[in-house]
Amino acid sequence: MNDRPLLNRRLDGFGTTIFAEMSALAVRTGAINLGQGFPDTDGPQEVREAAVRALRDGRGNQYPPGPGVPELRTAVTEHQQRFYGLAFDPDTEVLVTAGATEAIAATMLALLEPGDEVIAFEPYYDSYAACISMAGATRVPLTLRAPDFRPDLDALRDAVTDRTRLLLLNSPHNPTGMVLTRVELTAIAELAVERDLIVVTDEVYEHLTYDGAEHIPLISLPGMRDRTVAISSAGKTYSFTGWKVGWITGSAPLVGAVRTAKQFLTYVSSGPFQYAVAEALRLPDAYFTGFREGMRAKRDILADGLTAAGFEVFRPQGTYFITTDIAGLGEKDAPAFCRGLPERCGVVAVPNSVFYDDPQAGRSQVRFAFCKRDDVLREAAVRLQR
Ligand SMILES: *Cc1c(COP(=O)(O)O)cnc(C)c1O
């Protein structure tokens, strides 16, 4: 073969995700994995039973309808109405995807032209950069800075150019735990209307907010109903990250555009699980409150443990991640620190630098996931203090 690189230029530099690398390290060393954000306890038993029933009854074992099974699309619209007072048409304004990951990919591939600019706050979820690049577009990062990681709205305004097509937002924000306020969302909505931008909102942690922080879907704000693609997923809310059931809601033209791209990625996925997630979306309020309260308690266990171990802890208002700074431990280089941590302490964490374009910005930040059993978090805290 000639010496042309096999991997195309759009994927140059994306290599293997940090999560695969760190999870493999956890398995190899037997360390506690607080790197990748998956729960160590599966979601509700009745939802699992619903999946088994669907499999046994032959629902979803063959290709489900392209937009998703009607039961799930209807349950998504009921959920949007119940929690946010938002009305969507299940036939034209909902699309079921293979997790939020496919929703993000299909949205970028559907809506972007080569040369378009996409503004996103960094640190960002790692698939954003890759999907923007695969769509041939250019990402324009705006850095969220410690200690509170609030967005700089003046910088956002200044970053919009004639080539800006889309804002890609994530709130509650992984990895910093920042939750956008109504004031911030209002400013973003006004800017989007003024500059005629599409906004894609990654809301997979919509049910995980703490200390009075409230998740407000941007699509509920004035002027945003027809220019927002809202993305969510069952993985994080119901602790079934392996099922890969996600969805988007938005206006019929936007959802239709995304469906066009999505049908040539997976076409459909997760047939029987779609029926189970329809039931999950209809769980009583007690489920959502209990899940949030349990996760808040876990946050406090790990945050206190990390503080006692000498980390600077940025206590998150949302998600199940804690971002810390290791400078106070006399450490400067988060990637090196994380590579050595399993041997040193038997704990795996992720360096936040991988979530930034600006490698200096997150140089000394390390992310820990707290979606683990309380005893596992306590043991991790003990190990880190040693
Ligand atoms: C986990 C995660 C996703 C991916 O969700 P899936 O449904 O597992 O594909 C997307 N965005 C953020 C911010 C996440 O943390």
From TrEMBL:
Keywords: Aminotransferase, Pyridoxal phosphate, Transferase. GO terms for molecular function: transaminase activity. It comes from the Bacteria. Residues 31-383 form the Aminotransferase class I/classII large domain. The keyword Methyltransferase does not apply. SUPFAM superfamilies: PLP-dependent transferases (SSF53383). Its cofactor is pyridoxal 5'-phosphate. InterPro entries: Aminotransferase_I/II_large, Kynurenine-oxoglutarate_AT, PyrdxlP-dep_Trfase, PyrdxlP-dep_Trfase_major, PyrdxlP-dep_Trfase_small. Its EC number is 2.6.1.-. This is Pyridoxal phosphate-dependent aminotransferase.
